[in-house]
Design a protein that fits this description.
alpha/beta, seven-stranded mixed β-sheet, two-stranded antiparallel sheet, 28% helix, globular
Length: 198
Amino acid sequence: MDLCHVPAAREKGWYLALMAPNVKGPNYAWLDPSRLYCHPQGLQDCVADLLQPFQGDAIDMVAGIDAMGFILGAAAAATLRKGFLAIRKAGHLCVQTVAQPYTDYSGREKVMEVRTDAISPGLRILLVDQWVETGGTMRAAIELVERLGGVVAALLCVPAGVTAICIEDSEGGRWIQERYKCSHCVPPRLQPRFNHHQ
C-alpha cells in the first residue's frame, strides 16, 4: 500500500482507485475503503469533495452513521470545526435514546438510535455515511434527526444535508436525492459502474 503516491492531476474521485474489491464473497461489502482512509491526501481530498457543495451553508453539527460513517463524519466535523454526533446501532448507548427500525443494504432488519438530548429543534445537521446503497440506513437516520426536530436540508429548506462516498442510483438513493441536498464523490462517468458494483 503506497501511502505517499499522489497523482499529479487530482480530479474529483481520484482516490476511489485506492479502495480494494471484495475477495471474501457475498456476505461482505463489495469495496473496502480502508486504504483511502489511510492515505493522507486521499482522505483530505475525499472530505473536501464531500463538503464542497455545502460551502457557505449553515451547518450546526455533523452526524455520522454507525460504523463507517464515523470516520468520514468525524473528519468532516473537524474540517468544518463543528461538533460530531454518532448515530448508533441499537444497544450501545447508556443514555435515553430514540430508536428507528430499518432494513440495511443486505436485507437485514436492524435498529439504530440516537441520544434524545443531542439534537434541539431547528439544528441543521449534515448526515454522513460511507455508502448509500438501498437508502434504508440513511433514511432511518434522517427520520431520527427529524423526529427530534433537527433539519436535514430538504431541498427547499435551510441547508445541511446528506453526504457519502457513493450514493447509488437505486430507488432509495433517488428518494434521498430528490428530497435532500446531497453530495458524493463518484464522477458521473463512473456512476453506472458503481451502481452495478463493478
